[in-house]
Amino acid sequence: MKSITIDQLRAGRDVPLIDVREDHEFAAGRVPGAISIPMSQLGDRLGELPDGAFDVICQAGGRSAQVVQALEARGHDATNVEGGTGEWAARGFEIER
């Protein structure tokens, strides 16, 4: 499974960022530019995933790792963001609401 750190994400990546947290978590604050596709809805929304490479983030990195493993098995080019939104916020980086 491919993974990146919060620092690598913050440095800028030219791929979409999919946030798999639930709707209420996403609404409370997210990494700027993240697209919400909750893990609980992913099976019904696979058609909304980007065609090319993309990053996957959750709160701490656990859910996103599970999602990346499942999507890689389906042929998607997904990368896990270690530390997740929680680490992003804890480090004082911008949060979008």
Structural key phrases:
5-stranded parallel beta sheet, Oxidized Rhodanese, domain 1, 5 strands, globular, 97 residues, 4 helices, alpha/beta
* Helix-strand makeup class: alpha/beta
CATH superfamily: Rhodanese-like domain
- Which fold name corresponds to the CATH topology? Oxidized Rhodanese, domain 1
Strand proportion: 15-25%
Low-confidence stretches: none
Round the mean pLDDT to the nearest integer and report it. 97
Number of helical segments with 4 or more residues: 4
From the alpha carbons, calculate the radius of gyration and give it in angstroms. 12 Å
Which CATH first-tier class would you pick? Alpha Beta
The percent of residues in helical segments reads 25-40%
* Spatial order of strands in the largest sheet: 1-5-4-2-3
> Gap between N and C termini, in Å?
30 Å
How many β-strands, per DSSP? Answer: 5
Organism: Microbacterium radiodurans
InterPro entries: GlpE_sulfurtransferase, Rhodanese-like_dom, Rhodanese-like_dom_sf
Protein name: Rhodanese-like domain-containing protein
Pfam families: Rhodanese
